[in-house]
Design brief:
Mean pLDDT: 84
Low-confidence stretches: 1-36
Number of strands: 11
Radius of gyration: 17 Å
CATH topology: Lipocalin
CATH architecture: Beta Barrel
Number of domains: 1
CATH superfamily: Lipid/polyisoprenoid-binding, YceI-like
Shape: elongated
Structural class: mainly beta
CATH class: Mainly Beta
Distance between the termini: 42 Å
Largest sheet: 8 strands, antiparallel, barrel
């Protein structure tokens, strides 16, 4: 099954790294030489160092690259039982930005994201499966332009800074499945979503 960022400059796309989701990896796993992740179990909110970018490749036309300025989410990390990890993520479709005003207007229109009638792009994980010490596969439900479909993302744990786990999340989504056919076949049907996610731990209630 095929599988959608504060504003950044083009250089950002080369540095992108992981919920958008994020989460999972919940990995009780740790890269060689790194500190233990055992103390990272818990619930987190998507931090302010996170980003969400996307790209659509073209045939004889330039690749479209963009980002979303506004998004939020939470994720649960369970280093011991990865399958208990989970993620929820929401992106404001109207916050899309490519640096080209006419293109931004098109992306917000009913031909693409339809930001007026469908202001939110939402993802909720259904399954998280660890595949190595630092990688995981995540399936979930993506709601885009009023339709909800099952999509797949890969997750890589890139490290942690002062107790803040960091992930690189990548997914490939067929836009035609969500009624976004404009520009085909000059532009690919696949939209590659690339997220860099860091987490801020949420304190337990009470």
């Amino acid at each position: 099954m095929r599988q959608p960022l504060p504003h950044r400059t083009p250089n950002h796309f080369r540095q992108r790294l992981t919920i958008i989701t994020l989460l999972p990896l919940l990995l009780g796993a740790v890269p060689a030489g790194a500190a233990s992740f055992d103390n990272l179990a818990g619930r987190y909110t998507v931090g302010d160092r996170s980003s969400v970018t996307f790209s659509i490749s073209g045939t004889l036309v330039p690749t479209v690259q963009g980002s979303f300025h506004s998004f939020s989410g939470t994720f649960q990390l369970d280093p011991v039982h990865t399958e208990r990890s989970s993620v929820t993520f929401s992106v404001a479709s109207g916050s899309v930005a490519t640096g080209i005003a006419p293109l931004d207007s098109l992306l917000r229109s009913s031909a693409v994201f339809d930001a007026t009638d469908h202001p939110d792009i939402r993802f909720k994980s259904t399954t998280v499966r660890r595949t190595s010490e630092t990688t995981a596969e995540m399936d979930g439900l993506l709601t885009l332009k009023g339709q909800t479909l099952a999509e797949h993302f890969t997750v890589t744990l890139t490290g942690h800074d002062d107790g803040r786990p960091e992930f690189h999340v990548v997914g490939r989504v067929a836009r035609s499945a969500f009624g976004m056919n404009i520009g085909r076949p000059l532009y690919s049907d696949d939209v590659v979503f690339d997220l860099a996610v860091d987490g801020t731990r949420l304190r337990a209630a009470g």
